[in-house]
Amino acid sequence: MQHKKTNTDDIISMANQLRWSIGDDYHDKLTEGIYTDAAAIAKKTVKTEGAKGAFNPDATIDKILTSRTWGFPIMLLMLAVVLWLTIEGANVPSAMLFDLLLGQVYPLLKGLAASIGLTWWIDGLLIDGVYLAVAWVIAVMLPPMAIFFPLFTLLEDFGYLPRVAFNLDKLFKKSGASGKQALTMSMGFGCNAAGVVATRIIDSPRERLIAIITNNFSLCNGRWPTQILIAAIFIGAVAPARFAGLVSMAAVIGIAVLGMFFMFIVSWFLSRTVLKGEVSTFTLELPPYRIPRFWKTVYTSLIDRTLIVLWRAIVFAAPAGAIIWLVSNIYIGNSSIASWAINSMDGFGWWFGLNGVILLAYILAIPANEIVIPTILMLTVATIGQTTLGAGSGVMFELDSASATGELLKAGGWTLLTAINLMLFSLLHNPCSTTIYTIYKETGSKKWTTVASVLPVILGFIVTFLVAQLWRIFVG
Amino acid sequence: MSAKTDSPCAGCKHYNNEGLKKLGVDVSEFDYVIALAGNPNTGKSTVFNALTGLRQHTGNWPGKTVSRAEGGFSFNDKKYKMIDLPGTYSLLSTSEDEEIARDFILFGKPDVTVIVVDAGRLERNLNLVLQILEITDRAVLCLNLIDEAERQNISIDDRSLSRELGIPVVPTIARSNRGIKELLQTIDEVATGRLKIKPHRIHHLPAGLKKAVTQLSMKLDKQFPNLPNSRWIALRLMEGDQRVIDALKSGKLA
């Protein structure tokens, strides 16, 4: 054994000596050797026919999509079209789902529970808590996701994502990050946890950390519905009816672009302070455009993305529904735990143009961003004791349209400022628990996980504070 | 979420008439392990899906698969476990995706490594192919996307390519399942050892480097007679690759 070990050490020291004798350019020489072989084989086996410089559709499309002048406008236009289709298309199926799950199934379940004489609190916990939370999440989230994800996947299969990366490369380089971060950012628009895992394509540990920490600034699909709903209710309502859709879409794009802006700023800040270093170069292959196989893409994106994300939301929503019902129905003295928490946070929330309901909803919704809106609505009913719209305190209720949601929120004291700051806070707050866990798994560091989790919340409070103060000075 | 492997079609004689049975994620018992390697965006995941019947998400951008995915299929009564490795341009750097790919081929010792290449970009793809052939001597080249290459007026002489590389070459269009049957047949032949192969080894190395590699690999061969890839290990040792050094010390390689 001893003998063998010495021999291994011998080999290693011999390797080191040989390496010195070859010189600094060892790696280059090796790479060169491989390329020479590759070129020789290719020369013998590959034949290219036809006139060179003939019309090349890929190059022509690339010239437009990655052009200095048109690259960015086209990118925003694509995003706008996708969002517009999502907002406009989701209304009808959403209303149908509401009608089915809350208008018909809910009373049926209630009737059933009454007929078998279910104890009031079991009935409340299961039907008014768990069932309503799940039904809400399905009705709010399924339609926009079923439209947004297939559209996004079609763009991806067509080959547009690498062009986005190409366009954004310069901005990322300027902020001291890797150009590949543009790809992980795009993944983040689908899901931040997926975006964090995707950072494995980045070689430099420094740049990878930057990409992980800032991925949360990509508006993820759990937050798109919040943005879309609040924009439609409050911001679209400010504009004349004909332009309501366009204006709310512009607002959502504004938030998404603001997120990208924060991604650049924070990357820039990190790469000049705690994560200093050289920017590494990389080659990005622009793959050929491929006409996506439409139905196959729609099918796989529904299965792979929509249903998996929806399932996750349901898994988190069910217990959250139970907890919401409990905090709204367990009383300490004269008020429920929920209203006690909301009242005590209202003052703090005021400084940021938010309110106690929103803050409590964000605490309850740490497991999943998807359930923020349902939680907010339910808590609002609980605190203002609105019984005309809902079925009573602590019950998630039936709202058949966005306008009814708006009425309720206005009754709960919401203004345009509350809506804008909710949108900002939804962009700038801690990642969901799945993403936090993924960050920990990928970095293996408690320190960086904490930074990635806390930094966005701090930014969120700073931004909403500034907006609230300026709003009160200038708008009143 | 577990994939269902019992399809109502399974009883029909047309279902299994090619000897292929897609086993989805059921990889419990298997006879052979197949690694799927290749450059990013060459349709690796599409080949993976075509063989396993899984619907691993595919997308048209490089670097989509960042961790390895596993699936299984059975062919001619043999069960295969297939691992879809992250797409990489090379195995020489230290990014995590390249390490996952390299470690699996080196330490996982797959029975067959299927290397998927884009027929329209063969020369660039060969860089990785040649590196893999230094590590393993059981490989099959899947010459994918030949339809796209044809559209670009590129034709490839797959027979002489096979001769040059010393491994079987199967032209495919994985998107529409063309050539998958032949690919299976070839994988089967290499896995069972019916097809003996002698892969290409890089020979255009600069003189000094070549001499050093030969010297070191001879010494390695003497010490570890069963090492299938002493030349490549020698190259890595000279690069100062810590993982390979550790693996050599712990006897993990031989």
Can you tell me about this structure?
Chain A contains 19 helices and 3 strands. By secondary structure, chain A is an all-alpha fold. Chain A has a two-stranded antiparallel ribbon. In chain A, α6 packs across α7 (181-190), α7 runs antiparallel to α8 (192-198) and α9 crosses α19 (446-474). The radius of gyration of chain A is 27 Å and the shape is globular. In chain B, β3 and β4 form a beta hairpin. In chain B, α7 crosses α8 (230-239). Chain B starts with 19 loop residues before the first strand and ends with a helix. Residues 1-17 of chain B have low confidence and may be disordered. Classes of the chains: A mainly alpha (476), B alpha/beta (254). Chains A and B meet through α1, α2, β1, α5 and α6 of A and α3, β7, α5, α7 and α8 of B.
Spans where pLDDT lies below 50 across 5 or more residues of chain A: 386-398
Question: What is the oligomeric state here?
Answer: heterodimer
Number of strands of chain B: 8
Unreliable spans of chain B: 1-17
Q: Radius of gyration of chain A in whole Å, from Cα?
A: 27 Å
Continuous helix count of chain B: 9
Distance between the termini of chain B: 38 Å
Q: What is the overall silhouette of chain B?
A: globular
Q: In which range does the helix fraction of chain A lie?
A: over 70%
Biggest sheet of chain A: strands side by side, in what order? 2-3
Helix-strand pattern of chain B? EEHEEHEHEHEHEHHHH
- Computed structural class of chain A: mainly alpha
Distance between the termini of chain A: 83 Å
**Biggest sheet character of chain A:** 2 strands, antiparallel
Specify the overall morphology of chain A. Answer: globular
Binned strand content of chain A: under 5%
Order of helices and strands of chain A: HHEHHHHHHHHHHEEHHHHHHH
Mean pLDDT of chain A: 82
- Rg from Cα of chain B: 19 Å
Name the chain pair with the biggest interface and residue counts per chain.
A-B, 68 and 66 residues
- Tell me what portion of residues of chain B adopts beta-strand conformation: 15-25%
